[in-house]
Amino acid sequence: MAITLVNPEGLPKVDFYRQVSVATGSKLVFIAGQVARDADGNRVGEGDLAAQVEQCCLNIGTALAEVGGSYDDVAKLTAYLVDWTPDKMPLIMEGIARASAKLGVTPLSPLTGVGVAALAEPDLLVEVEATAVID
Q1: Cβ distance 100 to 108 under 8 Å?
Q2: Beta carbons of 3 and 23 less than 8 angstroms apart
């Protein structure tokens, strides 16, 4: 595998993702922010943050499969969250857990959440982008 996930001593231990990823592969893949739309462009999980997070992660899995990768190749995820407040964290974790179960991956790579005022369309609650490294 091109990615090794680590939780270094001296940093908080997080259950659903790791603090550091080490990449040794040869192909760098940047995946544009994915939103809660299915393959036909239909809305998924309108008003449901957990469902939207799940769909974003599944879309990243689809993009990775197209270029010969998987979530095991993800070096970094960034989630842009509309009107972020800490009380939304359980919904984020629920969406990640559901996607992880479907994709067969635990834990996720390092994940950064960024609160934003809005995304490209008013029904979107989250957008997730990924950087992967493939052997």
Answers
A1: yes
A2: yes
